[in-house]
Give the backbone structure.
Amino acid sequence: MASAWTQVRAATEGDLEAVARIYEPHVLHGLATFEEVPPSAGEMATRRLGVLKLGLPYLVAEVDGEVVGYAYASVYRARAAYRHTIEDSVYLAEGMGRRGVGTALLAALITACEAGPWRQMLAIIGDSANEGSIALHRRLGFEPAGTMKAVGFKLGCWVDTVAMQRALGPGSTTPPER
């Protein structure tokens, strides 16, 4: 369960140093992301602004006043027919798994996205052995949509991605608003 002191809020520019520090070990040592060079805090700020310009949320989680995770939604694909589908990303600081922080972040992200025009949320999870992320997404209503085998090569090995999906709001039961 998340600590009573866990707070999820919109990320500010002042959070981007912490966000870059959280992401760096995932880039350098993990398979959750296929990025291989850690972006600077300045690059993370640029990325955050891109997310916000699309009207999508970019959130951080704090525990006892320290930023320990972040999550954001992004465009799944640029082509117009995909405009109602978004992709989530959730990253936690080392040692913060299994404390409810990821659940709090992803739940808040889903709620924020359901307030917008989006109808489907995808998780493209790096590494089919990423049990923590798969379990997190399953807990919040995502269902498996497939596995793409050996689509990345990182840290000396071929890496799968697992696609998971959940409806937002009415999902595909009604046409989108014009």
